[in-house]
Design goal:
Layout lengths: L1 H18 L14 E7 L2 H8 L5 E9 L8 H5 L6 E8 L6 H11 L7 E2 L2 E2 L5 E5 L2 H15 L9 E4 L3 E3 L7 H4 L4 H16 L8
Parallel strand pairs: 6-7
Antiparallel strand pairs: 1-3, 1-6, 2-3, 2-8, 4-5
């Protein structure tokens, strides 16, 4: 028994020594999540970016900011429903703060172009933050002000309360991951994702 205890102690000591040089563990999950709703051009792009941000648990593409109930993609594309293409992001605040999430948001798209993002034009592609409470509103305003220092042109991102979120059709969900070789994904989304990955803003694909 003594030998067994001594052997166990020796193994434990080696284990502790070997782990003393390991990097610090990632922040522990709080077990609770918060939600952010953001619009920054095509929702396929925003979805792909935030799916790769540590601390994000789930991303769902959809529509917000309009005046028509249960809009379809075709409805929104007319520009007559008032909706923006958005991503509803569920995240762990113990790992990723709302402010940090917004910092990535302002880096992941051009917030200075009104109702457009790259070759996509229309009010549905506007830059927007839909806040869920007063705290998010204040943090959004602070994030927009901080981001302005990195842009010469005036930021036009709207900050407005979320009234309703409508999930987009199933074929829009997880779009980039499921269609990486589709034309828009190859030409527009992949370079954006890679740029942010190379800068260490989001995680690299496994």
């Amino acid at each position: 028994m003594k030998r067994i205890i001594t052997l166990f102690a020796a193994v434990a000591a080696v284990f502790l020594m070997s782990n003393s040089s390991l990097p610090a563990a990632a922040p522990a999950s709080s077990g609770t999540t918060e939600t952010a709703v953001l619009g920054g051009g095509c929702f396929w792009c925003i979805e792909a970016v935030f799916q790769r941000l540590p601390g994000v648990k789930k991303v769902e593409s959809g529509y917000a900011g309009g005046h028509v109930k249960n809009p379809t993609y075709e409805d929104v594309c007319t520009g007559e429903t008032g909706h923006a293409e958005v991503a509803r992001i569920e995240f762990d605040p113990a790992v990723l703060s709302y402010s940090k999430l917004l910092e990535v948001f302002f880096e992941a798209h051009d917030p200075t172009t009104l109702n457009s993002q790259g070759a996509d034009h229309g009010t549905q592609y506007r830059s927007a933050i839909f806040y869920l409470n007063e705290t998010q509103q204040k943090l959004a305003e602070a994030a927009r002000k901080a981001a302005q220092a990195r842009w010469e042109d005036k930021i036009v991102t709207e900050i407005t309360p979320l009234k309703e979120f409508y999930a987009a059709e199933g074929y829009h969900q997880n779009y980039y991951n499921q269609n990486p070789h589709q034309g828009y994904c190859s030409i527009v989304i992949r370079p954006k994702v890679k740029k942010l990955q190379d800068k260490g803003v989001i995680s690299k694909d496994k």
